[in-house]
Amino acid sequence: MADLIQLLTNGLALGSVYALAAIGFVIVYSATGVVNFAAGQFVMLGTFAGVAMLLNAGLPMPVGYAAALIAMALFGALFYLVVYLPLRTSPVVTVIIGTVAIGITLQNAALLTFGSWPFRLPSPFEGMMIEVAGAVVSVHALAVVATTAVMIFLLWLLLHRTAIGIAMRAVAQDVKAARLMGLRVQWLLAFSWILGAVLAGVAGLMLGPMWFADVNMGDPIALKAFAATVIGGFGSLPGAIAGGLFVGLAEVLGASYISSAYKDLIAFGIMILFLLVRPQGIFGEPIQDRG
Amino acid sequence: MALRVLALAAYLAIGLALSVSVSEYTLRLLNLATISAVAVIGLNFAFGYAGLISLGHAAFMGLGAYILAILTTQAGWSPWLATLPAILGTGLAAVVIGVPLLRLKGHYLALATLGLNVSFGIVAANWIELTGGTNGIAKIPGLSLFGHAIEGERPFLWLSLAVVAVLAVLASFIQRSRYGRAMMAVRDDETAASMTGINVTATKVSAFALSAIYAAIAGCLFATHVHFISPDDFNFAHSITFLSMLIVGGEGTIAGAIIGAALLTFLPEWLRVLGESYLAFFGLMMLAILIFMPTGIVGLLSRFRRSAKREAPPAPASSGEGART
Amino acid sequence: MTINRRTILSLAAGTALGAAIRPAFAAGEPISIGAVIPTTGPMSLSGKQYFNTLTMAEEDINKAGGINGRPVKFVIQDAGSSNSTAVSAFMKLIQETKPPFAFLTSYSTQNLATAPEVVKAKIPVMYAGGADAVAESSNGWMFRIRPTDSLAARGMAQFVKTLKATKPGILYIQNDFGQGGAQAAAKLLEANGTAPVGMEAYGQNDKDFSAQILRLRQKGADVILTFVYPADGALLLRQIKALGLKTPIVASSASFLPAALQLLSPADLENVWGVIDTFVDASVGGRMTDFTTRYKAKFGQDGDAYGLAYYDGALLLAEGLKKVGTDPEKLRDFIASQKSWEGIGQTFSFDDKGNGVPGVVVVKAKPGTKTIELVERIRPS
After folding, report:
1. pLDDT tens sequence across A143-155
2. Phi first, then psi: what are they for B145, rounded to 5°?
3. Does residue A201 contact residue A46 with C-beta atoms inside 8 Å?
4. Which is one Gene Ontology cellular component term of this protein (chain A) (predicted)?
């Protein structure tokens, strides 16, 4: 029983990270329609923004976090200008390949800048553990879960209660109509990229202390985030959370009760199954024109 | 038509000229490029004609390669004989997978096929008794023709050039046949296509199976060329590379598939002179190609050709010779 | 093919420039030595070490007068993380540099894929992939400068006996190294009458090992053998401690690399033994201390046992070049004939399959510190 609780808490912590990574991806997707294959590299950059600010520049934690997130916001704006704007009228596949290409550049640029050794990013809750019903949970993991919940709430407020958020949703639904209504569409799209990058930055900063920072960490995270997005429902924020937690739990419980060698087959198998049986995922968009 | 024959003749002439003049290393890259070309010509059926975004193409190549490798190394089959089950088995697998999967469109299909590719890798890495696990399968015998072993880069290039030529001609016939036109009709508008009596599902599945068969042939070539395969050789990154080759070369065109395969095989090798940062530059260059040549290299070439035609009066009415050569 | 010419020209220019700024310790036509090592991708963690130690070896050899007055030049090509890239890089070297000798990567599948080309090129190579299969396809040209995975597994199985454990559990990374090592260890443990109670795998990119660890605990494992890479090896040790397991751990060499140790706290290393290639002990004095101090000064990191293997390999090669010249066959025979060549990290003794490292060592951190000490040397007969 204690083991089961342990597995559940670890699965939830793992799933929260996937969820956090998936949210940044989903925000960009719902606003711009871009399937960003560099999403994993965004998270990697977030972690390394933390490495640069906290370890290399030696900034104290709150300042370092803020500086890292500002750096990510700038990166999001740059990505909008250099990658999204030139490719915005290209077909889906061209954009996918474009994000893959820039992902290769980002990963290798990080390797050249930070080297190949992994880093250990400090946590505000360094070494703190608590025991729950025989299971040991790190406080940092709980903080990840809490941060994820707070981020969702803030995002919900932003999208439903602020003018900019409502405008963003209008752009996501119909760019032409939004433009006719006098919305500054390009600014809103740029803001979506910035928001996506900052969210990836949060994910990166949260997972750095749990997993170490390593320049090759991007693609595996992206794969899990994709699975989470599909299972939860493409374009849905609650879906990204549900999907992320689901993938995290499937990974840990699958390894425990089925087979550790084949556990990733479970996550991807369920993803394919969802696509076949319920392509809109748990909460997702009704699939019509985004096909 | 004349242009097609000319292009094929030019392709073979360039290939043969290169095969007797360049170094062993360049020959190897040419072999990799031609093997990729086979796979990418196949991918062109699924994506270029039928509009199916597949990010699982490397898994079909791997399936073909593994069937051949297992039959030759464990059951002692001759490699030629083993290509039959490899190709047919892979085609069959594509049909079985395609029937449920191809109802998906766009990036949904892309992610589903990506998931398939990842799953293939997991099974290949863990079914150790059959696949040798992550250690892969070594000592795969090479092909031989009329008692001559096709060993070494140069003879192999002759074989692979011939294979590409035959498969390209075949693809060109299919493209202009009823089936090819049906695929493109389905890509452009499914509803309209089904109203004209086209069986949409059957068309998609056959395009998918055809692409898998080409991938399997590429897999057989790959296995008999390097004599060693492991799950890493067929991971999802290779699927993305194949799709990139097609886009960079010019989607919907056979020439584009061949040119794209060659360019993306050689580009990173050429960039090695840049030292440590060569892959970072590779990514940037690919992005630049996508931005500045949205219709790929072939699209750019045919644009030149068309504007040249416009300048030369009187322009003869070219029939159907558009971007899709 | 202008690019090819340009490549050669720029290489030539690079050589000329290098020769011009190099102090005149060694003059004359340089001898080019090839190296195909991973400088990009996930394998670059170790690859960077090889890059550094080979650069250092090049300088050291040339400072000491080169090869009978001729300088050596290491031409390094990236092997990336795919088999195909490694083979292409090797062929590029053979074609453009025509080296009498080359170093290959430490990734077994890349070694296996490159093996047929080595035979064609007819030059001796040193490699560091651990899979036994590489030596099985032994063609006389390939020399292994690190212990085989099965030797490391034998060392681990033997140390399980020393620990008097009877219910070993195995945890391994799902790649050629982990699978091979785990299978070899399982067979040996079974032969010792202590068959493993459980074998658990994890993916190369996994970040949570709680399921695997808890399964081994449920099965009552009284020692856990781990076959790991550096970053995941460190993460695994931290999670084992976080879950409160007191079970002794016998870890494969990557856990004790500096790249992994810098991620760990002393507490993570309690009750952990490492079965490693060689003990890179900066305090031992002599050539070892010289190597470690200079490495640290030059690259700002600690040198590791894997990098040292390539450094030793380069010195062995230099001796061969001095004694028998650049003829590949003579060079091959020279290396093959070494039965007790004293390197800094190893005493190399090549068997008929080209395996050059006959033993492993067991190390442990001193209680409450991250200072590593030698426990015993294992040289299975």
Report:
1. 888 988 898 889 8
2. -135, 125
3. yes
4. plasma membrane
